[in-house]
Amino acid sequence: xxxxxxxxxxxxxxxxxxxxxxxxxxxxxxxxxxxxxxxxxxxxxxxxxxxxxxxxxxxxxxxxxxxxxxxxxxxxxxxxxxxxxxxxxxxxxxxxxxxxxxxxxxxxxxxxxxxxxxxxxxxxxxxxxxxxxxxxxxxxxxxxxxxxxxxxxxxxxxxxxxxxxxxxxxxxxxxxxxxxxxxxxxxxxxxxxxxxxxxxxxxxxxxxxxxxxxxxxxxxxxxxxxxxxxxxxxxxxxxxxxxxxxxxxxxxxxxxxxxxxxxxxxxxxxxxxxxxxxxxxxxxxxxxxxxxxxxxxxxxxxxxxxxxxxxxxxxxxxxxxxxxxxxxxxxxxxxxxxxxxxxxxxxxxxxxxxxxxxxxxxxxxxxxxxxxxxxxxxxxxxxxxxxxxxxxxxxxxxxxxxxxxxxxxxxxxxxxxxxxxxxx
Length: 424
Ligand SMILES: [Zn+2]
Ligand SMILES: [Zn+2]
Fold this sequence. Notes:
This protein has helices at 7-16, 22-27, 38-55, 94-105, 121-134, 142-158, 228-240, 279-289, 305-312, 390-395, 405-409; strands spanning 112-118, 161-162, 169-174, 179-184, 187-195, 244-249, 258-270, 294-302, 317-325, 342-347, 360-374, 377-384, 401-402, 413-423. It has 424 residues and is an alpha+beta fold. Among the domains are: 91-184, VC0802-like; 187-200 and 234-312, Alpha-Beta Plaits; 317-423, Alpha-Beta Plaits (2-Layer Sandwich), CATH 3.30.70. Strand 3 (169-174) and strand 4 form a beta hairpin. Helix 1 crosses helix 3 (38-55). The longest helix has 18 residues, at 38-55. One zinc ion (ZN) binds next to helix 2.
């Protein structure tokens, strides 16, 4: 059938396939006229065809399609109502589906949502068969109509907004599984942390078993039993009833390095059932519970793009480092450390080269002051561009970092204590 076939002729073809409900009839003309629902379209077309039917009966049309019309002229036997052979009567069951959705959403805190649908194989097949007969010029899919009809009703009942782009919750009407499936999108919490005790920034699984538990990790599945992430997430997970978090830091320190200045982060909370947090209270609670270990401030709800922004932020960093030396130096020797000002060539450190590309980076030392403590110990305060491997700047990493504290002092040098004291 071509698009030149008239609307009523097309409607006749649709109704000749068996009983077709108003929604399914109207949906074949969804792209004609706006301001109507498919049910309206179907009703209108059926009425028009009923008029014509009375004037001149079209025997091909399945009589059940006019079961609730009372004809004056047409001598036809009363016909019983049948189930729509396209949708199986699903549009009469929309309220039941909506009730199920409301039930599943109970207790879930959200403002925006979006409804999707997965029709059964059978529905999709029925639709295809109908399209083969009646064409697809002005159609809409049954999947779209179910989603929209459920969405409209839910919106009314819940008084929440539909958001197609970034909904907080996606409600999937899975007809194949006869289930309502929820996808609860994450929330993103920005903040700044200080790390006052040695620990990794993020959860760290055991390398041997990757978290399953083995002899090496004493069946804990862990390499370290805590982390900045876990200390920050604990009370937040409790409050939001989320199932897990992802931690996005603006760079990181090694396990043994403290961060006594504020480092930006975004905590992504997965599948939160609650989305309102009193951040002032939360800050106080976290800081009280983990006093002397981890400190947070400026907690705030942010949008997803903040993750990228925080991760990509390139800020200068200042460290204080206690360095131990293999050979004795004299007090005046520490002046030679000024030679480190300027560009440092840093080849990917030995300790990370197995998981990073082996390349040479150029990073600048922006300022350095040093203090002689004793003949084999000095203290340095050093500011560098983002991305400097600071331990290697001290040790020289077997010549992979040049120049280094070790090379300018002509002795082996090792970090004894390292603290981040300023970022940005
Ligand atoms: Zn139908
Ligand atoms: Zn293990």
